[in-house]
Amino acid sequence: MLDKDALxxxxxxxxxxYDVTANLYHLIGFRESAYRRAAVRALxxxxxxxxxxxxxxxxxxxPLLERAIGATGRLVGVDLTDAMLDRxxxxxxxxxxxxxxxxxxxxxxxxFPANAGGVISTFALxxxxxxxxxxxxxxxxxxxxxxxxxxxxxxxxxxxxALVRLMVWLTxxxxxxxDIADRHPWESLARHLRLxxxxxxxxxxxxxxxxxxx
Length: 214
Fold this sequence. Notes:
This protein has helices at 4-14, 18-23, 32-42, 62-69, 82-95, 131-141, 161-171, 178-181, 185-192, and strands at residues 50-54, 74-79, 100-104, 116-122, 142-153, 194-201, 206-212. It has 214 residues and is an alpha/beta fold.
C-alpha cells in the first residue's frame, strides 16, 4: 500500500496523461465515463447548488457537475496532488468557468462548507485510509436531504482470486492494491447517512453507493 507521499508522487507522474490513460480501460469493457455520468445523476443536483468533489483529479467530472449546478452554483474540487490540480485548473480556464474553487488538501483534513448541496467522489476515496473520517465530516456538512455519492472500485464477492489479482494488476498504475480493494467505504456511508442505493458495475469490480442526510 502506498503512503501519501508515494501517492502524490505517483499522481504527479500520471497527471499529464491521466485523462487518456484512465479512458484506456474502455478497451476491456470498463465504461468509466458512463459510470461517472450515473454518479453525477445520482447526486440529484439543482441549479444553484454547491457541490464538493473529493479527489477531483484533473476535473473529468467538472463538465457534468457544471451542467447540473449552472453558473449560479459553486463547485469545490479537492485533491492531494498539485499536478492533478494544475490540469484541473487548465480545464476550468479553458471552459471559462468562474464558479470553481480548487483546494489542495488531504481529504481527511478538508473542512467541508456548511449546508453543501452534494458531495461526490469517483475512483478516489478508497485510496484514503481515513475514508470513514471523510464521510463523517461530509455527512455533517450536507444540507438535509442532500447526498454523498461514491463511485469506486472493490473486490467482487464472487470472483476467482486469479481474476481479482489480474484486475488489481491492471489498476496498479493508479495506486490500487489488494488491501485497498478490500476496503468498504460504502459501509461508512451507510453508518453516517441513509444508504439510498448500492449498485455494482463490471462484474462487481466497481460500485455506486448513494447516501442521503436524514
